[in-house]
Amino acid sequence: xxxxxxxxxxxxxxxxxxxxxxxxxxxxxxxxxxxxxxxxxxxxxxxxxxxxxxxxxxxxxxxxxxxxxxxxxxxxxxxxxxxxxxxxxxxxxxxxxxxxxxxxxxxxxxxxxxxxxxxxxxxxxxxxxxxxxxxxxxxxxxxxxxxxxxxxxxxxxxxxxxxxxxxxxxxxxxxxxxxxxxxxxxxxxxxxxxxxxxxxxxxxxxxxxxxxxxxxxxxxxxxxxxxxxxxxxxxxxxxxxxxxxxxxxxxxxxxxxxxxxxxxxxxxxxxxxxxxxxxxxxxxxxxxxxxxxxxxxxxxxxxxxxxxxxxxxxxxxxxxxxxxxxxxxxxxxxxxxxxxxxxxxxxxxxxxxxxxxxxxxxxxxxx
Length: 367
Hints:
Layout lengths: L3 E3 L4 E3 L1 E2 L9 H11 L8 E8 L9 E7 L4 E6 L8 H12 L4 H14 L6 H9 L13 E7 L4 H12 L3 E12 L2 E10 L5 H14 L8 H17 L16 E4 L4 E8 L2 E8 L4 H12 L2 H8 L4 E3 L7 E8 L9 H29 L1
Parallel strand pairs: 6-7, 7-8
Antiparallel strand pairs: 1-2, 3-8, 4-5, 5-6, 8-9, 10-11, 11-12, 12-14, 13-14
């Protein structure tokens, strides 16, 4: 296929070129640009390392190492060649070595990468925010490894091997980035060739079926079982004192919530400990920020009624906002402290909801 320019007079074919002819280097140009805009080839991916080579007895380097929203490791191999060479073999070796990476190790890797690029972000907080996790869970982290092969084109031997491997439950994608010369202006056509976007859902179903037949690694984690038992006990206690969470069940996650049309009262654990919160998500970002601002306008009265200061997180870079009260730094893993922690969380929630409910009522009256 080719790229054409459509004008009022005719359809003009854009001249194909190669990265070598365009003077573009694999590492200095393609890799440098893609790591800054990784969404060009793989949306919802966080780059955590470049030229990663921290292997025992190995000097092999992963061009780009990433993490996706499902907490899977993403191995990205780049070639500017016209056939991809033997990049699938390299990538499989890298994926096998990366598959054992735990969350804390990934944080160290990302921290090194942030330091090299001159960023002062906190690696752990950044990863938790990206994953939308409140705390790490190694029993879920890096359960699978995705492979992205990125090249100007792919040979038949490579594509045949990739199709065969995908049929056997691996997740390997071939992304073609083909350059064109538009009178000195370099354009690139980015297309996922394998699996075809139209067939990707089917491929996912095949992988999921194979995973189930292998016993499915995504079973209840030990941490999930802890959360379930903790919330079970907390709800038993809470339902004797308030009907706020009367119609919900325990969960294996780090939070439970009483849905309230986008204004949700939650019990939650974060990496700083236990809290109770109002989670604001009534649709559009602007609407959420407006609701937060209206509630925050009564901050002094709310905190006076509550009896102490609250945490007000407008979260300008996110769609949602939250207001919360910290309860304890105790971890859910400390079972001996559960009874007192559950009591404290329930009592804090009752005070918190009572302090903030009048402002919600005013919002609903003005809706």
